[in-house]
# Entry
Amino acid sequence: MELKTFSKPALANALSNNHTSKEIILTKNQFIFLHEYLDSKDINAKTMVIEENYISKDFLDGYASYYALCFENYPKVCRRVHFFSKKFGEPELSAAITSNNSNLWGGYLGFIVVKPIPITVIGLTLLKTYPNKEEPRVFWGTREYDVHLFGKKLKINSLAFQEQDTVIAACATTAIWSMLNKASLDFHTTLKSPSQITRDADTVSPDGSRLFPNKGLSLLQICQAIVNSGLVSEIKRGNIKHSDDHGMVVSSIYIRKILNAYSAIGIPIILVIKVPTGDTYGAHAITVSGFKQKQLKVSLPKNDITWYSENIERIYAHDDQWGPFARISFLNDKEIENHWTKSDPKKRPTLVQNIIVPVYPKIRISYENIEAIVLGLDVILRLFFGNRIVSDLVWDIKIQYAQNYKESIRNANLSNTAKMKRLVDPLPKYVWVANCYVANLKIMEFVFDATGVNNAMLGLDVVCFLPRPIRIKLRDFLKNNKHKFEPLIKHKDRGNYYDFIVKAL
# Structure
């Protein structure tokens, strides 16, 4: 055990090893990021506790797959560097280790595992997320980890991060591994080591060469590795043309919609991006686990549909070439800004090529299926309200666990009779919920089966929060204009959908 005051030189020294000098560490992007992160006013690290001869399960698997077979005698034990937000010395630490009443542990910020290999030294890393103080940050892709230190069990809410080592794992493998760290909490999903994930992707690399050293995974291989871990993938491809050089990219509006829609089930989402590097652009993969969302602003009614997800102004992603919870901003509807852009001499933007949404196999209905129906509902409700409302309609579409949806019903402004009916009725494990707001007031809630067949009518319930007289007027309005409004519902079974909505009101 060694105790150090947190500083840039001390951190660089702690992350170095016999194969990677302190001078090399100081030049690494990951070091620059981690020092900035730990030194920020939001995290504010003060003290480091260095634990030698640490056995890392994740490194051991890679060690057995590759490093143990090298002529060079690489050690199999690692170093683990712990961070605290409080200043203390060895007497205070010794007292905390032997006592159950010390408040020292309340300032625990997490740890970094240092691997005993050249250059790519950053192993399993768990760090505290940015706090949710003035800024409304939502880290939906994190989980609670148990950390054992000197016989003391500490808890930290985070998402596992590590640097790709270019031998066992490239960026895509590391992105999948981070995602599985959260998804593996579900008993249907398996958390595998980076080397296992790489093996699951295919028998050879995309160019036909051997898997190890690994040169990266193709989009198909990423999906194959996800399937072999117990999940399936929904691929959201580019939907807007950028330029001849970059082709189709995913629009910022669409990125926001997808992240918001799937955030409630808590599985981190993978972005396949093009980053400026040297004179060109390179392919890269990152794992999104949270976002910063502005408060819903009241605006005048518009002709186009308004999405709640438009309030997302920043996302947080694990980028193995930089660090955990890296901030990403939207420059415009075609480009984003991240650490790649900021470090580029020409400040060239980053582009999103694909979104990979890992979901449980039981989820068979995609976001797009629900949005198509909501677009029609928006037109109908706008025609009904006309000049009766002075604020815009805002829609929020999310997939949820049924038990979480029922919990929201329990806390909703409904009669006990209305609550009881919905709480005792059976639901599939996953449901799509489309909420409609006027200003900050929820007026309607449409519930759909997320596990059904797309060609079927998937409506399960309509919860109306409007006063009874207005609800009756809406129902009559729909009945009297069925021939006009039914075609607005873009679904093969639109007739049953329309009748279901009318009946539910």
Summary: The CA atoms of residues 15 and 98 lie 28 Å apart.
